[in-house]
Structures are given as C-alpha cells and as structure tokens.
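queue> holo job accepted (heme C)
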Amino acid sequence: MKTKFFYMLLILGLFACNNVSEQQIGEEVQGIIVKTDKEYLEEGKMIAESTFKVLSSNLQQAMAEGGIENALSYCNVNAMPLTDSLSKHYNVAIKRVSDKARNQLNLASKNEQKIIDNYLASTENRKPVLEQNENGKITFYAPIVAKALCLNCHGIEGEILSSENNEKIKLLYPEDKAIGYSEGDLRGVWSIMFN
Ligand code: HEC
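queue> job finished
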C-alpha cells in the first residue's frame, strides 16, 4: 500500500517537473536563462557532492588532530557556517535536514519530511528529485546515507558510538535524536534551493 502511494507520488512528481521543463527548455524569460530539469539535477548533485567533500575532509582532519571529541566541537561550531558559505558561493540555499536531527535547526520541514518518507519507503528508489514550490523556486533533494565513519557520532550507543562520546553529544545538543544509525541507513537529505 505504502509502495503504491510512493509510486503515485513519484509519477505525479515526474509529470509536474516535465511540464515545467517542456515549457522552458533553453528559453530565456525576461533576461533570465531558465535551466532544464536535467541541468538542475546535475547542478544539485555537483553542489551536494562538493559540500559533502568540504564537510567530510574538515571532519576527518579534526578527527586526526584531536579524535572524536575535537571533531564534535569542530562540527558544532563549523558545520552551519561552512554550509552557509558554500550556499553563497553557489548562489543557492544548501541545507542538510533530517527526521531525527542533532541540531534542531536541521529538522525537516513538512515538505522535506515527505521526501524523507519516500526515500524510507523504498531503498531502491533513493534517487535525487526536484520540486517546485509555490514561489516557483526549484529545490533539489538527494539522500544522505550513513557510512561507517559516521557511526562514530551517529551510531548505536555502546557500539561504534561510545557512551563517553554520546555524553559529549548530549552536552552540546540536549535534544539530539541523531543516533542509533547503522551503515546504509538514511541519515537525512540534502535540500538545495535554487535562486
Ligand atoms: C565527529 C562526529 C561526527 C561524525 C563522524 C559525523 N557527524 Fe554528522 N553531525 C555531527 C554534529 C555535531 C552535527 C550537528 C552540526 C550542527 O550543529 O550543525 C551533525 C549533523 C549532521 C547532519 C545534519 C542533520 C542533523 O542531524 O543535525 C547530517 C545529515 C549528518 N550529520 C550526517 C553525517 C554523515 C553522513 C556522516 C558521515 C559521513 C556524519 N554525519 C559524521 C557530528 C558528526
């Protein structure tokens, strides 16, 4: 039942997006070049990948320099500012959101939660998608999947995530929900809104 609903949403989504691009392929509306869905998808993927690279290389450097504890405070201070500066650089609004957020500023909105639910409904269909909001802005969404490295701070307490480190997480984020993940679990989604 859930899967049927998901496919319905997917099909509706595809039609909605196709309509946009059919009208607009290669067109210049009032001096603004309008991109095709394919171009938005490619740009979204490129931005998500390069943001991931920046975040994860900084994270790994902080871990090498001072272990998990140092990396935790590094992420606490720098994750948002790094993402914001990349948003400016690419002229988009980059967010990493989750249904189980650590930083409550990253908690998924209603709309983002729908995307998360679709990705959770079927692991085979975790492909990037585009959506257009009521203001006409296009948002790119893509899954963020937990890897082995992530479990140091997002894993099951007492396994890769030590109780000691979880205590430190709770001090920084009293409302933390972002633990208990295993490799391959959906940790959240990229939400990249184009201007
Ligand atoms: C050293 C600990 C640490 C590791 C390792 C780590 N994270 Fe996090 N993660 C954090 C912290 C701290 C935050 C909150 C950052 C903030 O305040 O903006 C966070 C936030 C996030 C968020 C934003 C949503 C939320 O819950 O606030 C996502 C998505 C995320 N991490 C995914 C990952 C993925 C994927 C990996 C592995 C590639 C990973 N993390 C590895 C500590 C870590």
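queue> The pocket of heme C is lined by residues 56, 59, 68, 71-72, 75-76, 79-80, 96, 98, 101-103, 106, 144, 146-147, 149-150, 152-154, 178, 187-188 (CB under 6 Å).
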